[in-house]
Amino acid sequence: xxxxxxxxxxxxxxxxxxxxxxxxxxxxxxxxxxxxxxxxxxxxxxxxxxxxxxxxxxxxxxxxxxxxxxxxxxxxxxxxxxxxxxxxxxxxxxxxxxxxxxxxxxxxxxxxxxxxxxxxxxxxxxxxxxxxxxxxxxxxxxxxxxxxxxxxxxxxxxxxxxxxxxxxxxxxxxxxxxxxxxxx
Length: 184
Known about the structure:
Layout lengths: L8 H7 L16 H10 L3 H11 L2 H14 L6 H15 L3 H13 L5 H10 L19 H15 L6 H18 L3
């Protein structure tokens, strides 16, 4: 098992204060895998999916969403394919040029579907939000996890209602597998 950057769920919540109200009432002193299991056991697949989006390191979180988009049953249209290609370019070569290309494409996408959110997740993983290199504006640390969670939520929303919980549970299983093997 790969060493996690957080030893308890509480540490994840403290690192991303925007999650604070999302998990009130849960035992935050559990280690992350036990916390995910507890969420799933209590019917909290959506919460477990959101937690994983922040638990994973940024690059691996984007990879998780990218893989989920590749595995969906409906083939992507041309615009979605282009967005996914930019995300995968950044995953292969996480440099400023590929990050900025993904960010710009995600911002420019008029539909803001799951593929655009994947591009935004890559774009918000580091660097600057400002196009002006003389005035860098680092993205807040929570933006990548937020974008991954939104992208996954939109992906699951495209499933028939009866399959959405199973879809979220499958995605959580994929995230746990990614965490256990250490990404890529």
